[in-house]
């Protein structure tokens, strides 16, 4: 074949390639497929929710029946939340003092932020993610409804990032788990510790997390898949964090804040696979 012809053909191909590329729409960040969480199937059951000798709002202990559901193995990470912010032109929450680290849990989100994230993810994936209910959350903390003050029994915790000696060393705070060394003064990469008996990580440590419920009083009646008060002023937050002392790390411990309060993180749940 004539060398000049080959050269000219290659040049033509090259130029038409460039022209073609300039007309093919490049995928934007909006078109990227969002990262979806790894979900763990939780087998339902009946358990005793609350703690009669805890805080007043943990009384009365009452029976709750939970149907099978799915919960995310990990808290939503900084990088997952950043995808959402980039795709929706939203600013990230207030950066914590240790900075944004991709595989750490997102923090400083409001309940409304969490709902916006879920709405975006559902729209993009066609899935039906939601926040866990408070009753589901306690069920998972309790390894599927086990009794007891702490999910790890009476010994020191072994698989959660709590207010440990490294937290005291950094902050001089005294409300800590004495003689417990988990190695993280602040947040840890999600899944740094062994999962609980249900296969879920950081459910009672690292950061505290939003539940779907309006905060309300417990009733002594048995309930099935309770979803909290019908309305209210505060939303429920659950699970201990890197800054939580022993009293507030109890399985039944409840927190409640206004839905635009920006501090917790969150994880997703789902009814079906
Ligand atoms: Ca810690
Ligand atoms: Ca957590």
Architecture blueprint of SSEs:
Elements: H1 3-23, E1 39-42, E2 45-49, E3 62-66, E4 69-72, H2 78-88, H3 111-125, H4 134-141, H5 165-171, E5 209-214, E6 223-224, E7 235-238, E8 255-257, E9 269-270
Parallel strand pairs: 3-6
Antiparallel strand pairs: 1-4, 2-3, 4-9, 5-7, 7-8
The protein binds calcium ion (2 copies).
One calcium ion binds next to loops.
What is the overall pLDDT average? 92
Radius of gyration: 23 Å
Strand content: 5-15%
The ligands bound in this entry are: calcium ion
CATH architectural type: Alpha-Beta Complex
- Predict the CATH topology: paralog of FGE (formylglycine-generating enzyme)
Q: How many DSSP E strands?
A: 9
CATH superfamily: paralog of FGE (formylglycine-generating enzyme)
Strand order across the biggest sheet?
A: 1-4-9
Query: What CATH first level would be assigned?
Result: Alpha Beta
Distance between the termini: 60 Å
Domains (count): 1
Describe this structure in words.
With 273 residues, this protein is of the alpha+beta class. The chain has one domain: paralog of FGE (formylglycine-generating enzyme) (Alpha-Beta Complex), CATH 3.90.1580. 23% of the residues lie in helices and 13% in strands. It has 5 helices and 9 strands. Bound molecules: calcium ion (2 copies). One calcium ion binds next to loops.
Task: Fill in the keyword field for this structure.
273 residues; Sulfatase-modifying factor enzyme-like domain-containing protein; binds calcium ion; formylglycine-generating oxidase activity; 23% helix; single chain; paralog of FGE (formylglycine-generating enzyme); alpha+beta; SUMF_dom; Sulfatase_Mod_Factor_Kinase; three-stranded mixed sheet; 5 helices
């Amino acid at each position: 074949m004539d060398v000049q012809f080959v050269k000219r053909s290659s040049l033509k191909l090259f130029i038409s390639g460039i022209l073609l590329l300039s007309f093919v729409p490049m995928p934007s960040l909006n078109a990227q497929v969002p990262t979806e969480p790894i979900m763990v199937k939780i087998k339902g059951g009946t358990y005793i929710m609350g703690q009669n000798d805890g805080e007043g709002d943990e009384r009365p202990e009452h029976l709750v029946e939970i149907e099978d559901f799915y919960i995310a193995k990990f808290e939503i990470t900084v990088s997952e939340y950043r995808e959402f912010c980039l795709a929706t032109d939203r600013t990230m929450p207030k950066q914590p003092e240790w900075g944004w680290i991709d595989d750490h849990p997102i923090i400083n989100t409001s309940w409304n932020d969490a709902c916006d994230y879920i709405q975006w993810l559902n729209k993009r994936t066609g899935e039906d993610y939601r926040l866990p209910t408070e009753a589901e959350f306690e069920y998972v903390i309790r390894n599927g409804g086990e009794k007891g003050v702490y999910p790890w029994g009476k010994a020191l915790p072994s698989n959660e990032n709590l207010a440990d000696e490294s937290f005291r060393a950094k902050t001089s705070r005294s409300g800590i788990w004495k003689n417990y060394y988990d190695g993280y003064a602040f947040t840890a990469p999600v899944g740094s510790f062994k999962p609980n008996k249900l296969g879920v990580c950081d459910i009672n440590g690292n950061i505290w997390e939003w539940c779907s419920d309006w905060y309300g009083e417990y009733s002594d009646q048995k309930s099935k898949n309770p979803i909290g008060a019908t309305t209210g002023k505060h939303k429920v937050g659950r699970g201990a964090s890197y800054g939580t002392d022993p009293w507030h790390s109890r399985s039944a411990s409840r927190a409640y804040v206004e839905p635009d309060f920006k501090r917790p993180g969150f994880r997703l749940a789902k009814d079906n696979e």
